[in-house]
Design brief:
- The protein has 336 residues and is of the alpha/beta class.
- 38% of the residues lie in helices and 25% in strands.
- The chain has one domain: UDP-N-acetylmuramoyl-L-alanine:D-glutamate ligase.
- Helix 4 packs parallel to helix 5, helix 6 packs across helix 7 and helix 8 runs antiparallel to helix 9.
- The protein starts with 5 loop residues before the first helix and ends with a helix.
Length: 336
């Protein structure tokens, strides 16, 4: 196991401002309707929500962008938005973060992915999704690829957030990976459905459910997990795999075929929404700052611990992550 040192981990976080990542993938506009419930509707057995506030936040790949910025890194984003109010809002929120809008391709007639959550007394009551899974027209894909080719040379690494919304068609993903290889950029992928286009990725970050779905292996025990991950690693050409396991932390598969556990500190969980985006942002930043995979996982566990303690799609700042590092470090040392 890598020898862990708090000062070194803090120093790695201090290096985040020197890292620039390129995020490619499916953007989501997360909408929240906040309210209170004190009665059931006389019209149907459903709660009546008295609305107090409505907010919008960056979700999906855009939340990974937001987390990179919150952690102190620099970032570019190449993605599609619709020619609708939600697309304009996404572009506005990204520009507010200082993200160059030149990587955003507006597509006429394509709805921007929106997830609207109704929350009362901190509990999510219902969610409405507005989205399409259709791939973009070929000319739109070519425009997005040109944007990727324009921004790739100034990046230190790439994060691909493939939520399966149709943006990253197999043809486009393969072409993008070819571009990243030409630029000698390590690619970290958060996949949902198809691994074939991502052969050559340096790191794959699925959760347990995604690991089962992608590998076709039902995971009941550690041997099943190792067998499932071995399949994933073969499909991407031998890159590392980090399986996120919620309150159990992460398991790393790099040189050790059986995997190395990185437990996380127990935290009161209010909302797991967006924790995966936080984890992949922290992992990619830490690795590009010079961390070992084990060190990056400890930092990512601390960052995820910050966001699950907040309601809604949240971020973790560098200072917040540092405040949880001692607990994350102590938990990780238990794996030894």
């Amino acid at each position: 196991m890598t020898r862990l040192d708090l000062g070194r981990l803090e120093g790695l976080i201090d290096e985040f401002p020197s890292v620039r990542l390129l995020v490619v993938g499916d953007l989501v506009l997360d909408e929240y309707v906040w309210g209170d419930v004190d009665r059931i509707s006389p019209e149907a057995p459903v709660p009546v929500v008295h609305v107090r506030d409505e907010t919008v936040m960056l979700g999906g790949a855009a939340n990974a962008v937001r987390n990179v910025v919150a952690l102190g890194g620099s970032v570019d984003c190449c993605a599609l938005i619709g020619d609708d109010a939600a697309g304009l809002k996404l572009a506005e929120l990204l520009k507010d973060l200082g993200v160059d809008p030149g990587g955003l391709i507006q597509v006429e007639g394509r709805p921007t992915t929106r997830k609207t959550r109704v929350i009362a007394q901190t509990q999510q009551i219902v969610r409405f999704d507005r989205e399409t899974f259709d791939p973009p027209p070929p000319e739109v894909g070519r425009s997005l690829l040109r944007a990727i080719e324009r921004f790739a040379p100034r990046a230190n690494g790439v994060v691909v957030e493939d939520y399966g919304k149709g943006v990253l068609s197999r043809r486009l993903a393969v072409a993008a990976m070819r571009c990243f290889r030409a630029a000698n950029l390590p690619v970290t992928v958060d996949p949902k459905a198809d691994l074939a286009p991502y052969r050559g990725a340096a790191l794959l970050k699925p959760n347990l459910r995604e690991t089962e779905a992608l590998s076709g292996v039902t995971i009941r025990n550690r041997d099943d997990l190792a067998r499932a991950v071995a399949r994933l690693r073969r499909r991407i050409g031998g890159g590392a795999v980090v399986v996120t396991r919620g309150p159990d932390g992460m398991t790393l598969f790099e040189s050790d075929a059986s995997g190395v556990d990185v437990p996380t500190a127990a935290r009161e969980v209010f909302d797991v929404q967006g924790a995966g985006d936080t984890a992949i942002a922290a992992l990619a930043l830490a690795l590009r700052a010079g961390a070992s995979l084990f060190e990056a996982a400890v930092i990512a566990n601390a960052a995820s611990g910050v966001v699950v303690g907040k309601v809604g799609t949240a971020t973790a700042s560098a200072d917040e992550v540092k405040s949880l590092l001692p607990a994350a470090l102590a938990a990780a040392r238990c794996s030894g």
